[in-house]
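Hey team,

Filing this mostly as a record. A colleague (T.K.) asked me to run one chain through the structure pipeline before their review meeting, and I want the input and output archived in the tracker in case anyone asks later how it was produced. No errors, nothing strange. Just documentation.

Input sequence:
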Amino acid sequence: MGTTQLETVPEPKYWHLRTVLTEALDSEFSVGEILPNERDLAARFGVARATLRQALEQLELEGRLQRRRGVGTTVAPPRVGVAVGSEQHVWPGAVGDAWQPTDCATAVPPASVADALETGHDVAVHTVRRSRGTHGQPVAAELLYVPASSVPDLSAIDAPAGAARARAVLRELQRLDLDGQDRAVELGSARADDAKELDRLPGAPVLVVTTRFHARGRTAAVSVATYRADTCRLTFGDSGGVEIHHDPERRAS
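Output structure:
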């Protein structure tokens, strides 16, 4: 590869470098390919390594690049879509649900969740952990908070912990008549436990989708789902639910 020097431009140098790198990704690299190290890239484009890092961080935020432990910086695969709709109302665990239950524990939820559930800040609730992936890649992790009052018959089920307990909680939820649900989406940073599950670094950008499920005139459960911001994009429509779909024909974008 030859050496490309950047011309003096009015915009920040790292932003211009981002544009140049984007063109290089489209023309010279394929999905999954490992980029040269920072020293070589900085020399190629005639910039300081600090400027290069700013451009790489921006491209990672946009989903063009991924930093993988023990591998390096690679070209990211196409983003998957997170469709956020409002017409279809179903409980987690219903037929066709793409989430996989992995664990269940009884714990005091965050204060914001306790306020939504009206359980009190010191009352433990069933906390179901679920995961979601596509094409062998982890894309989301969820914590589903369910107070005991929403699943009163659960105590009679011989499933003390783990995925079996999680499935039992989800089955008991189906007994309630769901009145509706509302959903909010915000940009956040990956906590240590979510980062590990999603194969990201702590503090990496994520999309946090909070869903409140209503039954019998109250909030019967709260879901906090954390999606990888580098691989997911939001799509809005009337399909209902939160759904991941994949277009194998799209290039990384």
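Quick notes for T.K.: The two ends are 24 Å apart (CA to CA). Confidence is low (pLDDT under 50) at residues 239-253.
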